[in-house]
Design a protein that fits this description.
The complex is a heterodimer of chains A (115) and B (115).
Chain A: E1 4-6, E2 10-13, E3 19-21, E4 23-25, E5 31-38, E6 42-49, E7 56-57, E8 65-70, E9 73-78, E10 87-94, E11 105-106, E12 110-114
Parallel strand pairs in A: 2-12
Antiparallel strand pairs in A: 1-4, 3-9, 5-6, 5-10, 6-7, 8-9, 10-11, 10-12
Chain B: E1 3-6, E2 11-14, E3 19-21, E4 23-26, E5 33-38, E6 44-50, E7 56-59, E8 62-65, E9 75-77, E10 86-93, E11 103-105, E12 109-114
Parallel strand pairs in B: 2-12
Antiparallel strand pairs in B: 1-4, 3-9, 5-6, 5-10, 7-8, 8-9, 10-11, 10-12
The chains are: A mainly beta (115), B mainly beta (115).
Chain lengths: 115, 115
């Protein structure tokens, strides 16, 4: 069964802390994505990666960075957490289909609260 | 650019009622279209998809037809159940020529079905 696993379902951090959100997929997918989900705003793309050590900015990359050292793992890093980064973070992966038709597979999400 | 506009919720229906959730899109090239569903406490999962004009996607009694002339992909179900209560997201992929597999999401529509 295909799976995208996010390391933490719930996190509580303090303003200014460094936060790591980990995501691992077992489907040998080339593409991986980090979205944040906020009520009324839907899903907004933070960063994505189409290969090991490659990364591309999404629509809202400010305040975030990412790391993709291995194909199966894509980490989201908040260098200095702020209260406006309180949100649900969703990781997803997909095959590089060459046709733009690839289905995204999502993890269950990590709900981050920054105090 | 690429964007998706979907009907704002929340939508509240009685069991066995007919459901329509409207979705229109703006895209360059030839995108694929998707509906994703998010059940409470879970990540998103693919509900159905259509990859070219006039295709109909269907799954679990839900249907949507890719209408290029009206740039729409409305979700319908003839008789909803309490278990269909969830948030529904319309999404489009980048052009078929793209390998990145990035999806653009609407803001989501919360559906609540009462017995």
């Amino acid at each position: 069964d295909v799976k995208v696993t996010q390391s933490s379902r719930y996190l509580v951090k303090r303003t200014g802390e460094k936060v790591f959100l980990e995501c691992v997929q077992d489907m040998d997918h080339e593409n991986m994505f980090w979205y944040r989900q906020d009520p009324g705003l839907g899903l907004r793309l933070i960063y994505f990666s189409y290969d090991v050590k490659m990364k591309e900015k999404g629509d809202i990359p400010e305040g975030y960075s990412v790391s993709r050292e291995k194909k199966e793992r894509f980490s989201l890093i908040l260098e200095s957490a702020s209260t406006n980064q309180t949100s649900m973070y969703l990781c997803a992966s997909s095959l590089r289909t060459g046709g733009g038709t690839g289905e995204l597979f999502f993890g269950e999400g990590s709900r981050l609260t920054v105090l | 650019g690429n964007s998706v506009t979907q009907m704002e919720g929340p939508v509240t229906l009685s069991e066995e009622a007919f459901l329509t959730i409207n979705c229109t899109y703006t895209a360059t090239g030839y995108p694929s279209l998707f509906w994703y569903v998010q059940y409470p406490g879970e990540g998103l999962q693919l509900l159905l998809k259509a990859t070219k004009a006039d295709d109909k996607g269907s799954n679990k009694g839900f249907e949507a037809t890719y209408r290029k002339e009206t740039t729409s992909f409305h979700l319908e179900k003839g008789s909803v159940q309490v278990s269909d209560s969830a948030v529904y997201f319309c999404a489009l992929s980048e052009d078929r020529g793209s390998t990145l597999g990035r999806l653009y999401f609407g803001r989501g529509t919360q559906l609540t079905v009462w017995p």
